Amino acid sequence: MRKLLFISLGLLWWAAALAQENQEKQYPEPEKMRPGMTEFWTPQPKIVTPGDPVTCSAPSDAIVLFDGKNLDAWESVRGGDAKWIVHDGVFTVDKSTGDIRTREKFGSFQLHIEWCVPVGITGKSQGRGNSGVFLQDKYEIQILDCYDNETYANGQTGSVYKQVIPLANAMLPPGEWNVYDIIYSAPVFNEDGTYRLAPVVTVIQNGIVLLNGFVIRGTTEYIGHPRVIPHGDGPIRLQSHGDKSEPISFRNVWIRKM
Ligand code: MG
Q1: Fold classification of 63-257 (topology level)
Q2: What is the distance in A from the centroid of ligand 1 to the CA of 87?
Q3: What is the 236 CA–ligand 1 centroid distance (Å)?
Q4: Which of 82, 119, 201, 204 could form a disulfide with 181 if both were Cys (CB 3.0 to 4.6 A apart)?
Q5: Distance, CA 80 to ligand 1 centroid (Å)?
Q6: CB 157 within 8 A of CB 203
Q7: Which residues pair with 254 in a beta bridge?
């Protein structure tokens, strides 16, 4: 009887040892981490030569949308060539000819655009230096003379018009050039037309962050709420607002696809 007990205990010990060995084979000890195990050497970021801030040149991989000479990269939303007025290395809104948009369409991008409110501009609130940059033809980043000009907060320069109050008012006075840098991630849509990934925008004016990764709610609407409308790549559109104030000017426009 005692002999049988010893044999049984021996078999049990052998089975346990075998099970442990199998488990160790199945789950081997993780390799000890070394610094190089979390370092990736490829692909390397592409080399981009930055523009010259003195001459306002564009980065080496940018598409120049206006270089001071002509509006060849633009067209009128009413059809035909863009008819805004090119002079002295800038172009000025011609309110009689409506909005203009780029001929090329874009997805996600980094856009640089400079704009200037004329000295002595008249009007107030939304009727003073009103224009805008429509991202993919749908979402307006407001342009307005907000220098000493009160208006509703979510309609100020740097707002996604009527959707968000900018984080700051960084306006320079009329006659000085404001610099917009806009970083935009295009939306991705579900099959039912809703956003799977909503559009996101960061806006910097004169080096000051006005919007920090704002999630756009939908199209810009003057009356009513934003709408979600499925779309693909779209142009950059500049607004001819139609108010009675003196028109603003633009210069040094370039875009980088992302
Ligand atoms: Mg506007």
Answers
A1: Jelly Rolls (2.60.120)
A2: 23
A3: 14
A4: 204
A5: 23
A6: no
A7: 64, 112
Report how far ligand 1's centroid is from the alpha carbon of 116 (Å).
14
Distance from the alpha carbon of residue 158 to the mean position of ligand 1, in angstroms: 10
CA 102 distance to own-chain centroid: 16
In order along its 258 residues, the chain shows pLDDT tens digits of 566 565 666 666 666 666 666 666 677 788 899 999 999 999 999 999 999 878 778 999 999 999 999 999 999 999 999 999 999 999 999 999 999 999 999 999 999 999 999 999 999 999 999 999 999 999 999 999 999 999 999 999 999 999 999 999 999 999 999 999 999 999 999 999 999 999 999 999 999 999 999 999 999 999 999 999 999 999 999 999 989 999 999 999 999 999
Any residues with CB less than 8 A from the CB of 185 and at least 6 apart, and which? Answer: 108, 197, 199, 200, 201, 258
Is the pTM above the cut of 0.85?
yes
Distance 207 CA to ligand 1 centre (A): 21
